[in-house]
Amino acid sequence: MKITKAVIAVAGYGTRFIPATKVQPKEMLPIVDKPVVQYLVEEAVASGITDIILVTRSGSQALEDHFDSSLELELHLETQEKWRELEEVRRIPDLANFIYVRQNKNLPYGNGTPLLCAKSLIHPGEAVVYMFGDDVVKSEVPCAKQLIDAYYEYQPAAVIAVQEVPAHEISRYGAAKLKPGTDRNELEHIVEKPSPGEAPSNLAQLGRFVLSYKTIEILEDITVGEGDELWLTDAIDRLAASDSVIAVTTRFTFAPSEAGIQTNFKRRLSNPTVSNIFSTIA
Hints:
Blueprint: E1 5-9, E2 30-31, E3 34-35, H1 36-46, E4 51-56, H2 61-66, H3 71-79, H4 83-91, E5 97-102, H5 113-117, E6 128-132, H6 143-154, E7 158-164, E8 174-178, E9 187-192, E10 203-211, H7 213-221, H8 232-242, E11 245-249, H9 260-270, H10 272-281
Parallel strand pairs: 1-4, 1-6, 4-5, 7-11
Antiparallel strand pairs: 2-3, 6-10, 7-10, 8-9, 8-10
C-alpha cells in the first residue's frame, strides 16, 4: 500500500520558549520567513504525502489558520499589488489535504500519544510517516522520502531516522543499537534518554519515522514509561524484538530547541535576500 499520510505531533506546550510560546504554538515560531511546521509539511509533500494529519491541543488555532485560506489578507495583498506575497499565501492551503485532530486530555502525555489520536484515520495494514513537530531537517533528499524509500525496499515494520551525536548529548534522545553483521542497519535495541554511561551507542533517534499499524497496536498495549509519558521509543523497542526495524542515518538541524538559534541563523544565511543583508552588516 502506498504511503500517503503523515501524522505531525503539534500538541506540545513549548515551555522552554516561554514567553514566546505563551499564546502561540512552538511549531509556529518562525525560521526566517516561515513557521517551523510549514517546513515539515513541505518536506512531507516533497516526499509524496497528500494527507497531513496535525494532532493539536487547545490554543492551537493559529496552526489551523495558517494552513487555511485568508480572504481578507488576499484582498489586502491584491490592493497593495504584492503579487509574490499573494502567490505564497494562496499556495499554502493547497499544499495538501489537512486534517486536524485534538489530543484527548484523557490520554497520557508523551510522543506516542498523537498516533493513538490519529488511529481512526489510519487503516490496519497501512504505514504512515510520523514527524515530531519541532524538528526541522536539512537534507538534499527529503528525510521523509529517504525513510519511505527504505520502507518500500525492505518492507520492515518500521523505519526510523538516526544520527550520531556527541556522547554527552545522547541523554536528550532515544539511543539506538544496531544489530551487528546486517547490511541494512536493522535495529536491535533502543532506550529512551539514557545517561551517557548507559547508552548503547551515540546513535540518536530523531523526529522522523515510517511506522506500520503494528506500532499503534503496541502503543495501545504498553504502559507509560519514564516521567509517566507514553514513549514511542518503548513501542519501537518492543517492535524490534519481534520484527524488522530499519535505521536510516541522515543529517538534521533542530528548531526550536537549544540549537534553535543556530538553525535559524543557518537558514537565514541560505536565504539569498537575508544573506546579502548579513554580508553588508559583516
